[in-house]
Amino acid sequence: MLKEKKIFITAAATALFLAPALAPVGHVFADSSSLQARNSVLASEQQTAHINGVYHVDQLVQFNGKWYVVDNGIAIPPIDYNNYIPVGPLTVTDNSGNALSDQTLHKGSYFTFGQGQFSVINLTNNTVALNIGGEAVSFNRNAFGNRLVLSDKIPAAKFKVGDKVEISNIATSETNGYNLIPHRNWKGTIKSVSQLKYSSSNWEYCVEYPNGQQNVHVAEQDIIIDSQSPSIDLAQIKQAGINGFNSGGWSYPSGQCTSFVAGILASQGVNTSQFTFLGNGADWAGNARARGIRVDMTPSVGAVVSFNGVPPYYSAPYGHAAYITQVNSNGTFHVYEGNWLGTSFHERDVPLDNAVAGIIHF
Fold it and tell me: Which first-to-last residue range defines the signal peptide (predicted)?
C-alpha cells in the first residue's frame, strides 16, 4: 500500500497505473522539464485562497513516484498535468464532507482541501493557479463559484535582489529564531526574497554582508535601505541619457556616449563646470582628476566610468563613458550607456578590468 502523507492509495488503484498506457484517457505525462516550468512560477505568490466544498476523485494519477487526483468539474480541459492535485493536503470524506476514519483514497472517493490557505500564483477572470503541496495547480475559477475564498492581496515586497540594505538597530531575531542583535546596523546586499508571514512582515530576505556572512531569514520589518546607498530613479536616468544622446549639448555632439552621460549628470543637478569639455570617454577620468574631482577604481551608484580606448569594445583613442546604476556582489557593476553599437540606450554588467581608466565621483 502506497502512502502520501496521511492519504492511502488502494492496491486496485495501484494496478491501474503500472504503465502510462493504462493511465486515464486524456492525461498527459509531463517530462521533468515541463514540471520544472510548472513549478518555476511559485516565486510570484502574493495572495492566498481557501477552498470550501466537497470534491470527487474522477482520475487518480501516479507520476514520478507521487500521487495526484483530478476532479473533472474544476479542471481546465484538456486535462493534463497542470490539473493534477497532490494528494498530501487533501482529506478523504463522504459526499457530505465528513472526514472518514479510513483515509484510503481511490477513484470515486470524495475529498476536501481541508482548512489550509493556498498561495495564489496566477488569477484571471476564468482561471486560478494555486500552490498546493509545493506545486502549481490550475483550476477553472468559475467552477468553484463562492467555494473559492480569496484573501486580501499581500503587499509587494519592499526590497529586491541586489538592493543595498541595513539591518535595523532594533532588530532582535530572524524568523527562525536566530539572534540578529549582533548584526544590528550591518550593511549588506539582498540575495533572495521569500514570502513568509512573520509578526508585521509578509516577506523574509537573505542578506549577505561584505565579509561573506549571511542572515538567511531576515523579516522585512528588520531591514532598512542603506542610508549611504543613493536612491535613483532608473526610468528618469534612462530618459535623461536618451535625451542627451539625441540632442547633444554641454560641449558634446549628439549621438555620443559622452552626450548620453552628460544628459544624465545635468538631470541630476551636477554643476556643468564639472563635466563639460572633458573630451572623449577615455579622457574623462584624467581630465576630471585634474579639476579636483575624486577619481578612483571604486564603482558606486551614480558615478561615471571612463573606459580606455581598448579594442574591440572601445575604439582607440576615443574610449567610452557610461553611468553606473548598480554595484554587484561579484565585483561587476551595471551601467547605462549610449552609442553602444550606435544605439541611444544600452545596459549591461561590466567587470573592473584594465579597460577601466577610472571611476569618476561627481
Answer: 1-30
DSSP letter for each residue of 17-52: TSSGGGSPTT-----HHHHHHHHGGGGG--EEEEE-
Please tell me the distance from the alpha carbon of residue 295 to that of residue 284, in angstroms, as a whole number. 10
Extended strands (E) in 211-252 = 214-219, 223-225
For residue 165, what are the domain limits? 161-223
Reported as a single tens digit per residue, the pLDDT across 36-81 is 434 433 333 467 889 999 999 999 998 888 899 999 999 999 888 8
Burial annotation 163-183 (CB, 10 A radius, 16+ → b, else e) = bbbbbbeebeebbeeeebeeb
Tell which residue, 362, 360, 309, 301, has the closest CA to residue 336.
Answer: 301
Beta carbons of 117 and 49 less than 8 angstroms apart:
yes
Q: How confident is the model at residue 151 (pLDDT cuts 50, 70, 90)?
A: confident
Residue 259: enclosing H or E segment and its boundaries? helix 257-267
* Same-domain pairing of 257 and 203: no
> In sequence order, which residues have a C-beta less than 8 Å from that of residue 1 and are 6 or more positions away?
8, 9, 10, 11
Residue 17 resides in a domain: no
| Res 21: pLDDT | 28
249 vs 263: CA distance, rounded Å: 8
- Is 14 inside any structural domain? no
Q: What is the pTM of this model?
A: 0.42
Question: How many Cβ atoms are within 10 Å of 25's Cβ, its own excluded?
Answer: 6
**Is 350's pLDDT higher than 60?**
yes
